[in-house]
Amino acid sequence: MTAPAPLRSDELKGQSAIVTGGAQGIRRTIVDALAAMGARAAIADIQGEAAARVSAEVSAAYEVAAFAVSTDVSQRTHVDDLARRVLEDFGSVQILVCAAGGLLGHVARPLEQTADEAWHDIVNVNLHGTFYVCRAFIGRMKKQRYGGIVNITSGAGRSVSRTKIHAYTTAKAAVYGFTREMAKECGPFGITANSVAPGFVMTPLGRDQWAMKSQEEKDDLMKSIAVGRTAEAQEIAAVTAFLCTPRAGYVTGQVIGVDGGHWMFG
Ligand SMILES: NC(=O)c1ccc[n+]([C@@H]2O[C@H](COP(=O)([O-])OP(=O)(O)OC[C@H]3O[C@@H](n4cnc5c(N)ncnc54)[C@H](O)[C@@H]3O)[C@@H](O)[C@H]2O)c1
Known about the structure:
Rossmann fold; 7 strands
């Protein structure tokens, strides 16, 4: 299957988007998808140099303003600096995609051997980072009475995780709850908030996970995907970008699985 090219339009022209963790993987394709619809983009990633490369490429490819901010989303002060910088440069923000997350190099351990550090690392980035970023921009979005928020979670949040990492499953499930609550509070202000749960994608994170599986686990995983293949990052990005457009203005508080039907089989 060839990855679908981003849909080009001017639907998001004049709008500003922030994508956290946009330097690589799924999030990189989300930046492309939003820029292809005309949105200006700020890319907030802990890998500042990689984010700067992406912003230069996106700006040249789609002729939109783009810049990178080196940000650790798990640090409140970094997120406050990010908000200041983005509002100075763009003046307003209409689109927020919280995608910074993942396993941060941690591997599964039985619960009794799970270190505090591993638990806190994963929860800090996947959950607290999402909270810090949404909180930093929501006041401005409410004032302008318009906005689209998408938090990237995982099928792990509504079932169990194939990574077998408790903190990951917990953090992703919590992001669902946080996003629902935000949808209810912010709906009257014209703001939508949804979660996108990607299936298995061969990003750097996905490739690492794949390499750690036995042949039996790989076969089992493939059998549990209704469409019989792993996802292309662009397929996750296309749905995420759609949820940020006015066409999706009546979709809120949802978890949209872009997982080839995997959730039906656990
Ligand atoms: N790849 C998959 O199969 C898969 C499946 C389900 C869910 N997900 C979720 O989708 C999201 C994207 O995954 P991916 O595969 O693209 O990951 P990836 O590991 O390829 O990319 C991770 C990105 O996040 C950035 N990042 C890490 N910690 C950060 C921090 N503290 N602050 C800011 N940026 C930080 C990294 O620099 C990198 O650019 C994650 O939330 C992941 O949990 C991925």
